[in-house]
């Protein structure tokens, strides 16, 4: 669910720091909480950001901006679990922010439909520096109806296949390079008494990652693009059925063990099983590395490896495609009184100091020149692996529960969970999705 989505990102980013930001509103910002704060009005910009450990990067950004701008930014930090609801409630009212943090795609689609946001496409087209500042596939994920409504403002979060090298070495197993390798590993680890893949089925959204990659590999990124663009016939594509059948096969093979439906992620259940050698692999967002660094530091240092999701037999998708969370975005309210200042503020996401602050915070920036800065990352090798993976990806599919509207995202997650739990057959899953 979207609440879980917000919670997992907050936990993942918090792992890089000692503590979560505790105040709802930045001290001294001159604003109450989002229920009290209105748009910035003349001479000010009211900027909302998702509250977590990475917010300190935006705090420093605001300080730098305010030193050189006559229009002053008031930064409002909104608690993660309530962020989406507060945004939906505030937009269209006098309490709406001028600039706000979001996930692109479905998270802002309703605002675009109601003509509430500034179309940034002309700005990208006329500003050559802005246009070349970010990885194109990441900018594309901020589009709605083929127009740009978001400027990338945080780190990338691709989904990776993580491996416990201790378990692999004990079983004499090698890193999977194909789907056949992956299926063979299921049998290998079962014989060792180890669950092949940790899966937090109790939370639902971790199962989504499997479906996202499988559909991409079988049908290519264009299948989900059709669905995201409102073409429900996309669910009738043969790749959807093949994806659902493959999930059935994996479950029947015992790829996730017998009790995955009761395992959680938000309380570190799946990650602990993986770190303790009870599971050999874990398909999870890149935040899993920082999560393990925080909770299982010895494992993270000595036995945590990672790779990409393999191709599937007969698949049409590009092996370089990635799924996950390309990044987060700044969007501008069309009713913001200080439009020029708002544009200047969101462009600060491409400034050198901001990028350096992201790296220092453990993030992997989405700017096109970030690789040269990653030597200063806490784990340069891992950071560069992610960065090159995303930079070379022809397509970076946004997590479906953010790419789709709220009305579609909730039942999509429910249907996926039922598919994994055996409550829907592959055909019933396809039928259910066509009916959304």
UniProtKB/TrEMBL annotation:
PANTHER family: ARABINOSE-BINDING PROTEIN-RELATED, BLR3389 PROTEIN. This is Extracellular solute-binding protein. Keywords: Signal. Residues 1-27 form the signal peptide. Pfam families: SBP_bac_1. Transmembrane segments: none annotated. PROSITE patterns: PROKAR_LIPOPROTEIN. The keyword Transcription does not apply.
């Amino acid at each position: 669910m979207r609440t879980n989505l917000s919670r997992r990102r907050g936990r993942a980013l918090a792992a890089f720091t000692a503590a979560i930001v505790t105040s709802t509103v930045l001290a001294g910002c001159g604003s109450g909480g989002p229920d009290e704060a209105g748009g910035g009005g003349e001479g000010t910009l009211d900027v909302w950001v998702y509250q977590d450990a990475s917010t300190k990067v935006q705090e420093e950004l605001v300080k730098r901006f305010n030193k050189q701008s006559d229009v002053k930014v008031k930064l409002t930090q909104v608690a993660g679990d309530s962020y989406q609801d507060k945004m939906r409630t505030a937009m269209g009212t006098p309490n709406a922010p001028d600039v706000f943090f979001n996930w692109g795609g479905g998270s802002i689609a309703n605002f675009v439909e109601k003509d509430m946001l500034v179309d940034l496409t002309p700005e990208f087209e006329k500003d050559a520096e802005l246009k070349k500042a970010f990885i194109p596939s990441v900018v594309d994920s901020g589009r709605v109806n083929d127009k740009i409504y978001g400027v990338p403002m945080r780190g990338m979060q691709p989904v990776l296949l993580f491996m416990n090298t201790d378990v692999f070495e004990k079983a004499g197993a090698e890193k999977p390079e194909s789907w056949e390798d992956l299926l063979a590993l299921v049998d290998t680890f079962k014989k060792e008494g180890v669950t092949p893949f940790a899966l937090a089925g109790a939370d639902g959204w971790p199962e989504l990652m499997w479906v996202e990659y499988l559909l991409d590999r079988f049908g290519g990124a264009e299948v989900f693009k059709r669905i995201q663009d409102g073409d429900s016939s996309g669910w009738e594509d043969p790749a959807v059925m093949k994806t659902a059948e493959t999930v059935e096969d994996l479950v029947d093979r015992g790829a996730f063990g017998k009790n995955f439906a009761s395992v959680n992620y938000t309380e570190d259940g799946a990650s602990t099983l993986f770190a303790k050698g009870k599971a050999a692999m874990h398909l999870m967002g890149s935040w899993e590395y920082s999560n393990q660094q925080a909770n299982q530091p010895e494992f993270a240092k000595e036995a945590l490896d990672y790779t990409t999701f393999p191709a599937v037999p007969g698949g049409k998708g590009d092996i370089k495609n990635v799924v996950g969370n390309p990044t987060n975005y700044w969007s501008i309210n069309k009713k913001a009184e200080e439009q020029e200042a708002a544009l200047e503020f969101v462009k600060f996401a491409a400034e050198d100091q901001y990028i350096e602050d992201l790296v220092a915070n453990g993030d992997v920036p989405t700017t096109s020149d970030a690789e040269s800065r990653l030597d200063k990352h806490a784990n340069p090798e891992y950071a560069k692996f992610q960065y090159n993976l995303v930079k070379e990806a022809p397509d970076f599919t946004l997590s479906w529960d953010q790419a789709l509207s709220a009305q579609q995202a909730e039942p999509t997650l429910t249907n996926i969970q039922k598919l994994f739990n055996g409550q829907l057959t592959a055909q019933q899953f396809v039928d259910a999705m066509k009916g959304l």
